[in-house]
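quick one if you have a minute, typing this from the bus. theres a chain ive been looking at and ive put its sequence and its fold in token form underneath. please have a look and point out which stretches look like helix strand or loop to you. anything you notice is useful, everything is just below.

***
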Amino acid sequence: MEKNKKIVSIVVAVVAAILIFLAGFFFAGKFSKKTATDAVPETTLQQEADEGATDDSADEDEGDESVEDYVAEYLYILEDEKFGTGEFKVSRAEYEYYCVSIYNSLVSSAAQYDYYYGEGAGLYYVGFDWKKLPADQECPIKIDKKEFKNYDEYIDYLAVEQIKATKACVDYAKLNSITFTEEEQTEIDNYIQESRESCEAEGTDLETYLKEYFGAGMTEEIYINIVNERYLVNKVDNIKLGLLEIYFTDEMVEDEYNNNVNLYSQVTLRNYIIAAATDESGAVYEASMEAAKKEATVFADLVTDEKSFIVRASDKEKKSGNEQYAEILVEDNYTILKNIGYDELEAQTDDENFAKWAFDPSRKTGETYIAKIEGVGYGVYMMVNPVHKPAVSYTYDVRHILVQFPEDSEKDTTTKIKLLNPADYNVTVDINIYPDITADHALYMQAQGILEEYLSGDCTEESFSALAKKYSADGNADSGGIYSDVPEGQMVSAFENWALEENRAKGDVGIVETTYGYHVMYFVGRKALSDWKDTVREEMVLKGSDEFIVELSDGYELKVEGGSDSELTELYQANIDYYASFFG
């Protein structure tokens, strides 16, 4: 069992989402009447099939129906789960179906990279040359220390693993009384009929096409069985995910976190890269690395908090000739590494001690670290939020009044800025503006004047709404400047960071600057979508689902009956010719 963990992480987590549960419906793209100037050929019917099954399960989760409701009729599995053993025998036609599907996925991915980024991009990003047969190119991929002589061996390995996992899931469904509802079977039957109609519209029939694309041994009967298995496996997967979510209690989640702190914890840092000098080819002069290190040391010595770090980074960008130095500052995302995990942070530099430093429980806000980045220079890192549990995910409600930067006009940097004093007011006033480098001094004072007008009144949400209708240049001015249920990541960072500040409370006001202008802000409220326990539980559920596939597959062997590889080679070559017809 243990030896297969690595296999699962690659085969199931990376490939299975496309291939283990696939119906292999690639033929719509082949039938489509596209030219070389159109989009890259798509695997339309396969995508629709995958989306259809996914949408079906998603529909069951919509509305008020909880996970518990969704899996309620299968709770008995938690008490009496059955696993099978034995040998599966599959026809050569079914085996070739999986091989061709996997091969087509490789070819499609590599060909699309070539199409969009130039010849050779597919080989660089995918590691596969779509213009060559799989037997004619080495495979660099390793799975649990297993090496493959060429892509032929790799495709064979994946096909066998995928078929075995699929058959094991189907057997599991039988042993645990998981069947299709009448509605689900009708959906599958409708899909098969749509497949037939798609073929007929192109002047052929389903079985003829299947033989052309998947080999002479493929029949409509085999194809229909694969489609039914794919839908059943998807249903088993959804049920298992739901059962695992119920199974993992809060106590189990707490234990998982405590036993794997670095796996789940996060930190937030500021970072700025001091680049070393390079030659004409872009290669770093080794002698300049030492100079970059010294410059990074000076940078670190001069920063004392987040604000000074941001301002110094902006100054460095200005001196380097970056005309967006001010925008980089106000958007506040150029120097931030927000809620980053241990593994992600470890990959940032070539310093093996950096992640250990950052995730040390004794770390304090404001501490700095200088790390070497091979071939680039040195990074300066400042701790902002030391090691903590996974961040809570929120949606938030906020009103704002936009004082918009005018287009194609010079900005005023001469008007004197005098920030109002938050201590003069009974409400929290949080202004995130740097007067020395803010983009337009006159417009800022206009925004502050609107805020002062609000603060001189009754300081209610209604009065702020009235000012938004009167002054805001944003499209939501008529609705009082309200943005409701805003998910994280939707707004520009300065706007969002203000709204999601840890101690933000209803009625807080302030001003932030973005590339759009100055935003006079009023905080309405926020709702937590998930907390750290949800994040850890989700990881536990996904891990448990992977291990479930391993446990299923471990009890079975697979035997492919009959045939040779010569027909597969012909099918692979036909794929090459097909994609070549699009790209010349």
Remarks:
- The CA atoms of residues 179 and 200 lie 31 Å apart.
- The longest helix spans residues 220-247.
- The first strand starts at residue 86 and ends at 91.
- Residues 393-530 form a domain with the Chitinase A; domain 3 fold (CATH 3.10.50.40).
